[in-house]
Structure formats: C-alpha cells, structure tokens
C-alpha cells in the first residue's frame, strides 16, 4: 500500500512546478522518504523538516544530496518556520525559479481580485500615458496593490509607493 502512495507522490512531483516535501524530523528517514528525496533533486523544491520542537532524529547524511538553502525547520504545532516558508516561496517565484505559466486560479474571490488589480494597473498606465498625473496614477497603483493583498495577505506600506514616485518624478 505504501508503494502505491510513493508512486502517486512521484506522479504529482513530476507535474509540480514547486515541490514542498515535509519530513518528520523526529524520526529517521525510511526507504519511501529516501526514494522521494532522490526523485525531487532535479525539481524546484523546499524541504520542510517538521516537528522542530522535538528532538531531531533525521540523519543529515541522508539529506546531503539536497540543497540545504531550501531546507527549513518548521513546527506545524507551534507555527515555527512558517513565515520562512512563505518568504522562500515568494523569493523563488519572484526570481523566476518557479514556472508560473500554467497557473490555474480556482478561487473565485482570487480571480476577481486579480481582475480588479489588472484593471487598476491598466488605468494607471493610461493616466500616465495621457496626462502624466502621477498622483492619479498612484491611486490606481495603491488599489492594485490592495487587491493583490486580498490574495497574499500583504498590506501596502505607504513608503513603497512614495519611493516609487520619488524616483519616477518627471523632470529629473
């Protein structure tokens, strides 16, 4: 039965743009774990060593073929390391290391927020192309950021927009 699970995991790994492999760090790796580890090494991955709140029993030599840059100690129980996981995923995405060409949006609320964000960006571009009214464009950009924040949970820091427009200022 476990062999079927490993084969299904391999199929999903082959389809994935990014693999999140969660290992139980409170026990030694078994053969299935090692098989999955050998299967992900040519993919983009993040290894999550769960149960960091307990004594670790994983033999680090079993993980030596994996890039330690993408190995994060976490505890699902107390939330340790979760922000680091989110940050790492964002970094991989924005560095272009995750292929986002085939993203499918299944959440209607997210789809609507993306649509509104796109409309706001288009509006900002139109304003800048036709009137050079930076203040008006900044409203559209703030709106777009806000819509994206509905999806990511991030909020707009005022100093980011101010910095963008300070460096964009016409006549310099």
TrEMBL record:
It is an enzyme of class 3 (hydrolase). Residues 27-169 form the MnmE helical domain. GO terms for biological process: tRNA methylation; tRNA wobble uridine modification. The keyword Hydrolase applies. GO terms for cellular component: cytosol. Its EC number is 3.6.5.-. Keywords: Hydrolase. Transmembrane segments: none annotated. One of its GO terms (molecular function) is hydrolase activity. SUPFAM superfamilies: P-loop containing nucleoside triphosphate hydrolases, TrmE connector domain. InterPro entries: MnmE_dom2 (IPR027368), MnmE_helical (IPR025867), P-loop_NTPase (IPR027417). This is tRNA modification GTPase MnmE. It comes from bioreactor metagenome.
